[in-house]
């Protein structure tokens, strides 16, 4: 199976991989997975598919065509999780007046219209919108765990495995993966269900997570896994 990171590896990297087993060769998937979808909010996709360099002129949060290319597979993953009746948790960021000046915005108080637009920007993208019974967790930090009750929620579900999709691979996805693994969850990342602004960052972070923290698998492997798990009785 060719991997997205293959073309970025040196001969030494490949030799090391051949000599040392990666994370996913050492650990098995669990039997009680939950799906965590990280930062799949509207402004990451924008209104229309556009190449990255064009998209960020008007919307610096846009992830370009990478977001739209990943969307069909993320929708398949979400549909399979719902069919399997496992917990689905959507993650977005908190929008408050107190953080308006962050990320290059002015320190002035926004108009009601500006604030309403910002709130809308961080709602979950419509094709992936939560349905009844699915949780939305809002965070202040990169990791979905750092400023939320996510760990407690997952413990209440008695989850042992997290299937993680979303963006960005090198940022909030990676932070969530590392924290999730530190909490002793098994981590599964369907390769085509995460995305980033730059190809190299996306590929190398997936490679690094595959070696250290997670099972980076094909979408097909993730769907096959979901077909074999028992539904949660309360989902």
Give keywords.
9 helices, alpha/beta, seven-stranded parallel sheet, 235 residues, Rossmann fold, globular
Head-to-tail CA distance between termini: 34 Å
Q: Name the helix and strand elements from N-terminus to C-terminus, one letter apiece.
A: HEHHHEHEHEHEEHEH
Q: Tell me the radius of gyration.
A: 18 Å
CATH topology: Rossmann fold
Query: Would you tell me the overall average pLDDT?
Result: 91
CATH architecture: 3-Layer(aba) Sandwich
CATH superfamily label: Isochorismatase-like
What's the total helix number? 9
Look at the helices and sheets and give the structural class: alpha/beta
Q: How many domain modules?
A: 1
What does this structure look like?
The chain is an alpha/beta fold. It has one domain: Rossmann fold (3-Layer(aba) Sandwich). 40% of the residues lie in helices and 14% in strands. Strands 1, 2, 3, 4, 5, 6 and 7 form a seven-stranded parallel sheet that branches. Helix 4 runs parallel beside helix 9 and helix 7 runs parallel beside helix 8. The two termini are 34 Å apart. 37% of the residues are buried. The model has no long low-confidence stretch (mean pLDDT 91).
Task: Give the gist of this structure.
By secondary structure, the chain is an alpha/beta fold. Helix content is 40%, strand content 14%.
Break the fold down into its secondary structure elements and pairings.
Blueprint (H helix, E strand, L loop, with lengths): L10 H9 L13 E6 L3 H4 L6 H7 L6 H20 L3 E6 L18 H10 L13 E5 L10 H8 L3 E7 L1 H14 L3 E5 L3 E2 L3 H14 L2 E3 L1 H9 L8
Parallel strand pairs: 1-2, 1-4, 2-3, 4-5, 4-6, 5-7
């Amino acid at each position: 199976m060719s991997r997205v990171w293959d073309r970025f590896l040196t001969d030494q990297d490949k030799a090391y991989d051949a000599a040392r087993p990666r994370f996913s060769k050492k650990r098995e998937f669990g039997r009680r997975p939950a799906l965590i979808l990280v930062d799949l909010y509207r402004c990451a996709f924008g209104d229309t598919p556009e190449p990255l360099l064009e998209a960020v002129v008007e919307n610096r949060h846009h992830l370009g065509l990478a977001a739209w290319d990943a969307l069909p597979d993320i929708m398949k993953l979400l549909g399979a999780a719902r069919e399997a009746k496992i917990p689905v948790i959507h993650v977005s960021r908190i929008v408050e007046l107190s953080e308006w000046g962050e990320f290059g915005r002015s320190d002035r108080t926004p108009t009601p219209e500006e604030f309403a637009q910002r709130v809308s920007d961080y709602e979950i993208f419509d094709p992936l919108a939560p349905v009844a019974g699915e949780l939305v967790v809002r965070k202040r930090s990169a990791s979905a765990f750092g400023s939320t009750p996510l760990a407690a929620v997952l413990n209440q579900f008695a989850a042992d495995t997290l299937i993680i999709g979303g963006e960005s691979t090198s940022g909030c996805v990676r932070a969530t993966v590392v924290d999730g693994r530190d909490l002793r969850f098994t981590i599964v990342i369907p390769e085509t269900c995460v995305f980033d602004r730059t190809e190299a960052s996306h590929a190398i972070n997936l490679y690094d997570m595959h070696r250290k923290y997670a099972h980076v698998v094909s979408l097909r492997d993730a769907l096959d896994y979901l077909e074999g798990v028992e539904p949660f009785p309360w989902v």
